Amino acid sequence: MVEVNLWSGLRALADGKDKVEIEATTVGEVLSGLVKAHPGLQDAIDAGVSVAVDGRVIASSLTEPVAPDSEVFLMQRLKGG
């Protein structure tokens, strides 16, 4: 199981939890597992999120590996110019 930390704006969509445990071995599995466990997260994930694994922000690689002991944060993707 991978423990995923959620930013405060997502907690209401995940039954008030700030951390969610998901069965996953890749970033893509983390995102799909979050939606499966908490369907209310779908719109936020579709709008664009950043995933940080062990202090590295994973820009767009859904195949990036995630270990059970990885520190994983789901963060709001910042847009601007």
Task: Summarize the model shown.
By secondary structure, the chain is α+β, with helices and mostly antiparallel strands.
Folded structure, characterized:
The chain has helices at 27-37, 42-47; strands at 2-6, 19-22, 49-53, 56-58, 72-76. The protein has 81 residues and is of the alpha+beta class. The chain has a five-stranded mixed beta sheet with strand order 2-1-5-3-4. It is globular and about 25 Å long. The chain starts with a strand and ends in a 5-residue tail after the last strand.
Amino- and carboxy-terminal Cα gap: 37 Å
Most strands sheet: 5 strands, mixed
Query: What is the ordering of alpha helices and beta strands?
Result: EEHHEEE
Strand content: 25-35%
Compute the average pLDDT: 92
Q: What is the level 1 CATH name?
A: Alpha Beta
CATH architecture identity: Roll
Taking pLDDT < 50 over at least 5 consecutive residues as the criterion, the unreliable ranges are: none
Topology, number of strands: 5
Number of domains: 1
Question: Secondary-structure blueprint of this entry?
Answer:
Layout: E1 2-6, E2 19-22, H1 27-37, H2 42-47, E3 49-53, E4 56-58, E5 72-76
